Amino acid sequence: MNNTTGYESNTILDKLPQHLLQYIKPQNYEEYTPVNQAVWRYVMRKNVAYLSKVAHESYVEGLKKTGISIDNIPNMYGMNRILKDLGWAAVAVDGFIPPAAFMEFQAYNVLVIASDIRQLENIAYTPAPDIIHEGAGHAPIIANPEYAAYLRRFGEIGSKAISSAKDFELYEAVRHLSIIKEANGTPISEIESAEKHIAHLQDNMGEPSEMALIRNLHWWTVEYGLIGTLEQPKIYGAGLLSSIGESEWCMTDQVKKLPYSIEAARTSFDITKPQPQLFVTPDFAFLSQVLEDFANTMALRTGGLSGLQKLINSKELGTIELSTGLQVSGNFESLIAHDGKPIYFQTKGKSALAYREKELVGQDVNQHETGFGSPIGRLKGINIPIEEMSPRDLKAYKIYEGEIVSLDFTGGINVTGKIITGTRNLQGRIILITFENCKVTYKDKVLFQSNQELYNMAIGEEIVSAFHGPADLKSFDLLDHTLSKTKQTDLNSSLSELELYYQTIRDFRNGKNTIVSRNKVFQEVQEKFPTDWLLPIEIYELSIKSGDKQLAQKIKVHLEHLKLEQPKLGQLIDDGLALASNTMVATV
């Protein structure tokens, strides 16, 4: 284990770019409490018993392959060693991370796992990502090769989706809700206020960005997907696999089942409520087909004026690729258009030029510290674009080293100056022309002027691609992770005492302390913690196994009384009793 990074690396994790490492944190397995372990065990026993009937066959098989057990929260390092055989790895993170980073991890075959675990009061469902959701939901399904390929491909495409400023505001709001909902003692009013804020943001997002649309696809497949037929679907989405409430609810007629299609991208979701409808894919291969159809609508593949405009609206670091293959990365600030096409673009602040995702020598952020602007398109009155001109053509049009030229572009951009040199790509096509004493104008407006400073003009007839992030990851300092940390639950003295009771019963079940009186533990818990229901369930299970019918009956009476006082616990208690009585089978 690397003490600096806090995780144990392997050949897959070694390939992660530096900026993703900032999100990884140590799992700190020793910090899981006995109650945490009991919550994991309850959810897993119930899920495996129920999901073995309604989940895709890859789920139970995947639990075996990924080494996830029912009785113990998985250790990240153990999972990593097993996932390596599947071509994947896992890392621990602190709750929600930005969607683009989450998807980029997937592109590197790395499963992101929020290592915290939900509180007992949120055992049925929590909007916060936790190890039940990630470890027991996502991990088993990636054992299916077709689905794993889809997940990786989704990461590749999704990490290039262009966001909007409102996307980040919504992300921060959802992250805040997940933190306060899992924090001990958060007032209900604060949670309700956070939920209303999210609802307000969702209702006022405007035209959804690419990231918003692809997040919808992610939600309705990776998180809440069903597979098979509309009449007899199976569960594969991690949100359903990890929610003991919704995994049953989604199988009823109260949840509408729709055939999965690209229309899912336009179907929004509310993370705070059960989903009113779900999409059913016929098979995992169809997921990839829809993903590629969606990618065809993205600026990543369409480029053009709309792609450039999306980057400007996003106010985030992005890249355009010209038809010559030249890539310009930076924060795009403005454009000039003519006849529906961009004829000039301008970035603000540090920018860099690259070709095939590799930064061009001498074209880094130090060279372009205050921005980069250039015309694109054809020269006026000349049928052949500059990028297709042979050396002889260039010389004939005096686009040649040492020549003082005045280049008029279609749309009104003029570049005047002395040509110093040209940069060519591997195919010999010119992709950059460098001038001195240069002046760039649009009609009567000066866009750029210099005497000593060199001017680099990008060559390209059109923008063929526009996407989030830099072309070359090494061009920019991306180590800017400043997310708020999830709150740590403080254990008061009474809760610490309850934890000791949980540990005592856990030790007994594991054969570490077999002389303890389960009857006495139950009596003390009943007196001191009359509203706790999970530990009595665990003692009930042990009494059933040992044939202690008298103790089992006492616990059952207590739990029936608790159900009357707190009806919302009814289903949880009934399911726990059924599991303990072996009327629900839980085996891996």
From TrEMBL:
Its cofactor is Fe(2+). Keywords: Iron, Metal-binding, Monooxygenase, Oxidoreductase. Residues 1-344 form the Biopterin-dependent aromatic amino acid hydroxylase family profile domain. CDD domains: arom_aa_hydroxylase (cd00361). Transmembrane segments: none annotated. Belongs to the biopterin-dependent aromatic amino acid hydroxylase family. This is Phenylalanine-4-hydroxylase. It comes from Maribacter sedimenticola.
